[in-house]
Amino acid sequence: MPKKHGAKATSAAAIGNAVRVKPGFVLSDVDPRSTPGYAGSKKDSVGAMDASRAEIDDLQERLYAGGRDGDGPSVLLVLQGMDTAGKGGILRHVVGAVDPQGVSIHAFKVPTKEEREHPFLWRIRKQLPPPGNIGVFDRSHYEDVLVVRVHDLVPPKVWRRRYAEINSFEESCNDKGIHLVKVMLHISPQEQRARLAERLDRPDKYWKFNPGDIDEREHWGDYQEAYQAVLDKTSTDENPWHVVPADHKWYARLAVHQLLLDKLRELHAPWPPADFDVAEQQERLAAT
Ligand code: ATP
């Protein structure tokens, strides 16, 4: 008899817990080709995302409505990963599927001269999502303990104290009603080579190729070490990290979709009550 896919087998509900970083987490133990918490296929994953799209829309609209008075919670998705890890695909397929009204995306590049003259969190604070919004950071304040650490861009005593600064900064975000979803997209060096090779093979992908990405491959081990330190020092009960295996793009997209859904469900913002007399307005409308 053909094996039937039951709802349980293809449910994405277990992904959040499966990818959450817990004490003693070891990055090198995670297989970038694995699909933790999910037993479905690529095709199932598309169906799973489609099935919860209406719910995400509803939850996002509630969040947005609740922020209209300048109060209420917001969500901040922090995306980190090695070059080619698939941040762009997440932005297009996951974030792109929610109503653009109420979504703000910011990509953090090499700091400008002006940004370098300020403390590292200065440019980050300016991009925090307002109440009711979903903010997305494509790279983030974590670059200041990743690329900066790997390339000795500041003395060790400076980057070492940043982990604690980041933790208290994120707590202050929580106090303002900003709920973080921190995601590291975890790819293998072999998959990165294949993705870079594809960019070099196809004229329609040349624009994505950056020769510097090949130089960065020399530092793969140092980056993994720097990521491990980030996960050890900044995955807290309030603001945990999620390590999402990303060699399979379809799984990474489903996982981030699910993490966003989980967070919106947790917030489940109530519809704001009317700040006018509904019956009176109905009567007025009927009279027109
Ligand atoms: P893709 O992954 O899609 O190729 P990208 O995120 O690599 O895009 P780029 O403009 O190619 O985008 O790279 C941004 C660069 O900025 C990265 O190399 C990143 O390490 C660097 N960067 C970001 N923040 C900092 C920082 N605080 N200090 C130094 N470099 C930084």
TrEMBL record:
Keywords: Kinase, Transferase. Residues 26-49 are annotated as: Disordered. This is PPK2 family polyphosphate:nucleotide phosphotransferase. It comes from Flexivirga oryzae. Coiled coil: none annotated. PANTHER family: POLYPHOSPHATE:AMP PHOSPHOTRANSFERASE (PTHR34383:SF3), POLYPHOSPHATE:AMP PHOSPHOTRANSFERASE-RELATED (PTHR34383). The lineage of its organism: Bacteria, Bacillati, Actinomycetota, Actinomycetes, Micrococcales. It holds the Pfam family PPK2. Residues 48-265 form the Polyphosphate kinase-2-related domain. GO terms for biological process: polyphosphate metabolic process. GO terms for molecular function: polyphosphate kinase activity.
